[in-house]
């Protein structure tokens, strides 16, 4: 078994006494797509810059293909980075941009030209070598920036939110393209982003990061369906959330007295005993509507709501409901079957969800996570 | 309404036109006419190239002319070599208050007049000056050392006077270089010198050219520094112009010299732009 491409152990970085990265360890196997997902300021960029070599960790180790690179300067590490604003060299044409790293390795001119042509072919932009960087479209720049790194055959390619500057349509396309490029080159990608859909769509494994620590490490399904912490539940995907106090715990199900007066049941995650503060998260698509209480026989949680708004967005359409008893607003996905297609503002509906489809976590100290849950 | 906007336009453009015509066009036309006439008798003048012929026939004039050109180019080069790292430090390495403080330090010498600044150098460099005294006190020399009145002293003065005009455009262009681009240069295997050569300098070319043009023109047209710090052998072309106008009262020859200096600076600036592939509006726009 060969060494993993990238291994970080007990990585720690402090700036003037402020801990930006706190005891982070992870391993990225060869050829995989690894993402670090977190809100801005969570320390993900710091991790990336330490791997690239622009920052020195306060403590801990970074190993690339088994060898520690702590004392290796960035230009000697076999790790390349696609920068947030791509950082293509505006003073050079496309071919010189891609050939820059090869020239540094003092390869013969003919060899450089050959390799540049080959990589341009591979990213689907043959013949654009003589063009100036400013003449390229956003998507082309993106691919050239990746080609400029890939031509050096790095062990690990780091990508620092490279899709942030693109418009939505192009971003959606580039997500698929990036994943295909990664599979094609077979290089290990480490991708950092605050955009959960980028991470969820492209990655083999994702680390959700908050306040300098990894909250959870797993694949996209794990994070979405089995969040381990309240932060992950709030940050990945949309959720309805209630805070309250645990009234009773039995058989893995917690009954919580929410602050707004509802009594809710949810699967217990993490340690909570009766009397503890807790939070319950419910995905909008797991909230089921029914015309009368009989439709919701299997649901442990039920409430009646009044539609305050319909947010039509094709397959991702939502209804906003106000709970009749408590006034709390919750979000519900509209069923694709069209059964509730006629739903309009002011209508009354019964909604419910099963206890095991909601998750109850011990309450967090801060509210940091939900800002990103969009 | 139309008449109103036209009047506004005329009023706005008038100061510029007045300035151009009164201070630049008229004096230069007058100088050109002056340089092309020869005194043939009392109050009698004829059109001729005699003044320009005098310039070519007299080795001192020609020699001073060439020496001034070479020395001004040298002063520009030295200013650039010293100014570039200073500007890079201010633009890219210093942060926040240190950055503005350093920038201000470049400006501080300009709070006093050029004359006082030059006297400052004389206090330092003269035989009984600070540096001479320090060297004697340290026992490095036996007697007083005269460091004034030579080309080196003059060069120090010229570089010192011009530094700000090199640093300002350089800081501006270097600040516009995204840090990510420099980091990408290292990340892709570049070393310090190769990043400087392939990325930083090509990016800074407009600033380098703008600063160099200004410094070159200031040095070429400088009168005070060469006169006060330079020696008998370091005659500057502006001193010749001064002596023709003021000492010899030979305005015709002085005007010819003035025109030659204008042609010289134009030719060298043009050559500099051609050499670096820049245009005047591009570099001056960046500064």
Structural class of chain B: mainly alpha
The order of strands across the largest sheet of chain A is 6-7-8-3-9-10
- The rough form of chain A would be described as elongated
Q: Work out the helix count of chain B.
A: 13
**What amount of the residues of chain B lies in strands?**
under 5%
As residue ranges, the low-confidence spans of chain B are none
Rg of chain B computed from alpha carbons, rounded to a whole number of angstroms: 23 Å
If helices are DSSP runs of H or I spanning 4 or more residues, what is the number of helices of chain A? 8
Distance between the termini of chain B: 38 Å
Distance between the termini of chain A: 41 Å
Major protein interface: A-B, 26 and 17 residues
Instruction: Count the E strands of chain A.
Output: 20
Provide a brief overview of the structure.
The relative contact order of chain A is 0.12.
Question: What are the SSEs and their pairings?
Answer:
The complex is a heterodimer of chains A (374) and B (287).
Chain A lengths: L5 E10 L2 E11 L4 E5 L6 H9 L6 E6 L2 E2 L10 E4 L11 H11 L4 H14 L15 H13 L5 E5 L7 H18 L2 E6 L2 H7 L2 E6 L2 E6 L1 H6 L4 H6 L4 E11 L2 E6 L4 E6 L8 E6 L5 E3 L10 E11 L6 E6 L5 E5 L14 E6 L4 E5 L12
Parallel strand pairs in A: 3-8, 3-9, 6-7, 7-8, 13-20
Antiparallel strand pairs in A: 1-2, 1-4, 4-5, 9-10, 11-12, 11-14, 12-13, 14-20, 15-19, 16-17, 16-19, 17-18
Helix pairs in contact in A: 2-3, 2-4
Chain B lengths: L1 H34 L1 E5 L2 E4 L2 H8 L1 H35 L2 H12 L6 H12 L4 H8 L13 H25 L3 H9 L4 H29 L3 H6 L7 H11 L3 H26 L3 H7 L1
Antiparallel strand pairs in B: 1-2
Helix pairs in contact in B: 1-12, 2-12, 3-4, 3-7, 3-9, 7-9, 8-9, 9-12, 9-13, 11-12
